[in-house]
Amino acid sequence: MSTSLRKYHHGDLRSALLSEGMALIAEKGADRLSLRELARHLGVSAMAPYRHFPDKEALLAAIAADGYRQLQARLEVAEQSPASARSSLLQQGIAYVQFALDCPALFGLMFGMKMLEGQNPELDAARAAAFDSLMRSIQPEGSANERGVKAMGCWSLVHGLAMLLLDGMLAIPEGVEVDAWLAQVIGTTVASNVVQ
């Protein structure tokens, strides 16, 4: 009996599907992923994945939700980084773009999902938690609406920068440290929105 089958019988198939699904998305892209192929890779029956995910869209939503949790974890580490003279918002902006560069296929899936809010509670909660991490670093002055607008502006900046880099429209200059370059590009814009 294969290791995958033994894991499945111990109740680990959902985790294995998510992990292997992420790997296949990184290799081939989300469009070419299928539950049948995942089952084959994991050595389980073609119907076994359907016990955890009713269809491919549900699997992709769960993978995207996991991506948001990974992004949130990076944002929280950046927010709490005491070693830097940079603001926590700038640190988070750098972490956001670095996540996109480190995990381009997952990042593409997370923001390419056409699933509307309210259709998948797990995905909605993961998206909201990641955005809440950013909100904590926005200046506390002003109404919740004003803070939300500032957060959306900062998010738009780092998301746009990430997409321009991933699409090859911008490139980090050769010989320049990625972290320092990102800090310079992002820093001027976020300076006026940080928690003092």
Which keywords apply here?
globular; 9 helices; single chain; mainly alpha; 196 residues; 66% helix
Q: What features would you describe in this structure?
A:
The chain has helices at about 5-10, 15-30, 35-40, 55-80, 90-100, 105-110, 120-135, 145-165, 180-190. The protein has about 200 residues and is an all-alpha fold. Mean pLDDT is about 85; it is low at about 1-10. The protein is globular. Helix 4 (about 55-80) packs across helix 6 (about 105-110), helix 4 (about 55-80) runs parallel beside helix 7 and helix 5 (about 90-100) packs parallel to helix 8. The chain is about 65% helix and about 0% strand. It is built from 9 helices and no strands.
Number of strands: 0
Count of alpha/pi helices: 9
Query: How far is the N terminus from the C terminus?
Result: 58 Å
Principal-axis shape: globular
Q: Name the average pLDDT.
A: 86
Profile the largest sheet: none
Portion in helices: 55-70%
**By helix and strand content, what is the structural category?**
mainly alpha
- How much of the sequence lies in strands comes to under 5%
CA radius of gyration is 19 Å
Helix/strand order, N-terminal first: HHHHHHHHH
Low-pLDDT sequence parts: 1-10
